[in-house]
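Regression test case RT-17, inverse folding.

Input:
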């Protein structure tokens, strides 16, 4: 009698239908999640049109919410529709006051539209909400550098490099700030970690040229040419100095 209540035989398992979990896109919640992830991936690759198309389809089907608003705002930013993106982000900020993405993206909009004090304030808010955002620290540091607030810029950029030491742009921005503060040896050493010796001297020379020290700039452009006589940046810098033209800074 007890045998009938024992373990199932191996043949019995084959007769029972296997219970399977539905694929993520087979449930309404799953479809929405997959759709948002696809839109995010498109935005990361720069496909604003595709991402906004997904957002529009989701809205047509009745979807809503702050995450969808954030994706749409980001798509607007990639299409340079800054006013529309700003309005949407400010609405999201009221709903998600502690989401660091909102002040980060607002800071980018403010910087792109020349509202530097607002951009700095927005990035300061972003790093308070997310101290581990290397991008926000770099953006804050670069803007502070543009305002010649070099001690604060160096502090912010050092944090960016600490968080993401492999990002060349962050290290170069820090080196430019160090050079502008007169810390030339540190700046040259840091430039040297991201480029060849000739380019390191050319970058330091550019920093000095931008700061108005034409004499020292010429010295380092010449150092660059000693290492590489064909260095394009150094040759262009010397020609600029000889014709009294100033470069545009775009680290």
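Golden output:
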């Amino acid at each position: 009698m007890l045998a009938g209540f024992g373990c199932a035989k191996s043949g019995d398992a084959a007769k029972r239908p296997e219970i399977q979990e539905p694929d993520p896109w087979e449930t309404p919640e799953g479809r929405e999640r997959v759709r948002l992830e696809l839109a995010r991936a498109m935005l990361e690759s720069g496909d604003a049109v595709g991402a906004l198309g997904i957002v529009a389809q989701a809205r047509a089907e009745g979807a809503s919410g702050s995450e969808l608003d954030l994706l749409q705002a980001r798509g607007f930013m990639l299409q340079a529709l800054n006013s529309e993106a700003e309005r949407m982000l400010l609405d999201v900020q009221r709903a998600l006051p502690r989401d660091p993405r909102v002040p980060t993206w607002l800071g980018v909009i403010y910087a792109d539209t020349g509202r530097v004090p607002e951009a700095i304030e927005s990035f300061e808010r972003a790093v308070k909400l997310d101290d581990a955002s290397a991008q926000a620290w770099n953006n804050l540091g670069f803007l502070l550098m543009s305002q010649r607030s070099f001690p604060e810029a160096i502090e912010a950029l050092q944090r960016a490099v600490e968080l993401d030491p492999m990002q060349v742009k962050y290290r170069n921005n820090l080196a430019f700030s160090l050079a502008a503060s007169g810390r030339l040896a540190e700046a040259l050493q840091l430039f040297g970690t991201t480029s060849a010796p000739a380019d390191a001297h050319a970058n330091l020379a550019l920093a000095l040229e931008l700061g108005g020290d034409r004499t020292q700039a010429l010295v380092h452009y010449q150092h660059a040419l000693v290492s590489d006589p064909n260095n394009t940046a150094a040759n262009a810098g010397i020609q600029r100095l000889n014709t009294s033209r100033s470069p545009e800074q775009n680290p």
